[in-house]
Amino acid sequence: MLSVVVASWRRDPVVLRNAEVAHDAASTMKVAVLAALYRSGMDLDVAVPVVNRFRSVTGATYGNSRAADSDPLPWDRLGRTATVRWLAGRMVTHSSNLATNLCLEQVGHEAVARVWQRAGVTGSASPRGIEDYAGRAAGVHNRVTALDLVRLLESLKPELLRLLEGNVHRVDLAAGLPPGTRLSGKNGWFPGLRHSVGVVHPPDAAPYTLAVCYTGPLASGDDTDDPAARLLARISAGVWRRRHLLTR
């Protein structure tokens, strides 16, 4: 299943392909957690314990796998503390699973649900933490649609979009753009899926939003050499070549 949405920034989409089909959210849900934190009013510079024990939506407990995490730095702080601001940054720039669940513990799932609702989504939700396999087995799933991912980015303030420019995983949408092109975005991947959404800022055209969600056998789950990532890069390159046409 391939879903694609292309839209000039905060304007009606010009491309809608399977735009409202739900996919497993993977790490794209971390954008909603980021927004919930920054809208909560909490002191983001408070230090919190770095632990690897979280409460499942089933009431049980679970932890993250260090081997499955793309960011080693939060793991190096196990047993110590880190600020919420630092954890939130690692969550979206390096896609840390451990940092994500620590942030969720601080803000709560209800606040994340309000972020989705405020964005006006119709088919997306993220009611459980990363690697809450007991919750998934009980039928609680994090879902996104390509259209809702566009709506989510459109609901963010400039400060959060600037944070998303720091995403270091640039093998899909970013790989289809000329080097140095500004991209505020987030991706997610594991075996069987590869998603990415971002706001592209061309120097010679109006900004536009592109969301691509792919679920299928091309997705190897590799964070650097994924055939599905190359597919997303080709789509991104095709949209870039037509960037001057998007506002017509």
From TrEMBL:
Pfam families registered for this protein in UniProt: Beta-lactamase2
Domain of life of the organism encoding this protein: Bacteria
Keywords carried by this UniProt record: Hydrolase
GO terms assigned for molecular function: beta-lactamase activity
InterPro entries documented for this protein: Beta-lactam/transpept-like, Beta-lactam_cat, Beta-lactam_class-A
GO BP, sorted A to Z: beta-lactam antibiotic catabolic process; response to antibiotic
Domain spans labelled Beta-lactamase class A catalytic: 4-213
Protein name: Serine hydrolase
